Amino acid sequence: MTGPHRICLVRIGGEVYAIGDTCSHADVSLSEGEIWADACEIECPKHGSSFSLRTGEPQSLPATRSVPVFPTTVVDGRIRITVPTAEELR
User: Fold this and answer.
1) Cα atoms in the 13 Å half-sphere on the side-chain side of 80
2) Which of 30, 6, 19, 2 is nearest to 70 (CA)?
3) pTM above 0.85, yes or no
4) Burial of 58 (0-12, 13-18, 19+ CB in 10 A)
5) Residues 59-69: pLDDT tens digits?
6) What fold characterizes domain 7-81?
7) Which of its termini does the chain have fewer beta carbons within 10 Å around, N or C?
């Protein structure tokens, strides 16, 4: 299914994280960045800002705004991501 969200999926051990795929500092795909499993963070490949995979909060500059995170569950080996509807975004 397609929609308005670009989402980066990350699996660390048995946990699956879904985070907005666009860096809040620049229009760069976070899915191209490095994953820091011990810190549960992802690094933007362009300027090096890192974001918490749990909260979306920036962990280093130059980014100062969060990126969205989406709840995930794994059911029968399939990843389900809960994304907001248009009404919920209003």
Assistant:
1) 6
2) 19
3) yes
4) buried
5) 999 999 999 99
6) Rieske Iron-sulfur Protein (2.102.10)
7) N
